Amino acid sequence: MKIKMTINDQSHTLDVHPMMRLLDILRENLTGSKEGCGEGECGACSVFMNGALVNSCLIPVLQCDEAEIFTIEGIKDTAAGKLIAGAFAEAHSAQCGFCTPGMVMAAVNLLRQNPNPSEAEIREGLSGNICRCTGYDMIVDGIQLAARRAKEEAVPW
Fold first, then answer.
1. What is the pLDDT of residues 58-77, one digit of tens each?
2. Which residue ranges form the domains of the chain, and what is each CATH number?
3. What's the gap between Cα 106 and its chain centre?
4. Total-model pTM
5. Over the range 70-79, which residues count as b (16 or more CB within 10 Å of their CB) and which as e?
């Protein structure tokens, strides 16, 4: 069947099997979204669908007809994406890098809703993401740094 969707501001008409997952479509066309668990537990495949943060491994592609999808590739070149990437690099928030796309997407989602989160609010905002390398402290530090810099530089989320 054919579906239409917008991925990172580019319109696509795709011929898909109805039970494919959004993650499968993204992995065929882009590389940033990762499949970790395939069960919606790890957050590595997180994307924005119609403005909401979702685990793309749980979304049947049928639900994406006429949807607007933003992946890490669509976020990374924005002012917010560059700010978070810089803060993550400075705070050593990424180790192996596998969870990083999902962590960045979760950070953007959190900072859009709360541009000045407490440590507890950051940890809550990351609760759907698993990192096996950092112990989360450096990720929290990176998000705190990004929040401070966004405020100083008036970067919109």
1. 999 999 999 999 999 999 98
2. 2-73 (3.10.20.30), 76-153 (1.10.150.120)
3. 5
4. 0.92
5. bbbbbbbeee
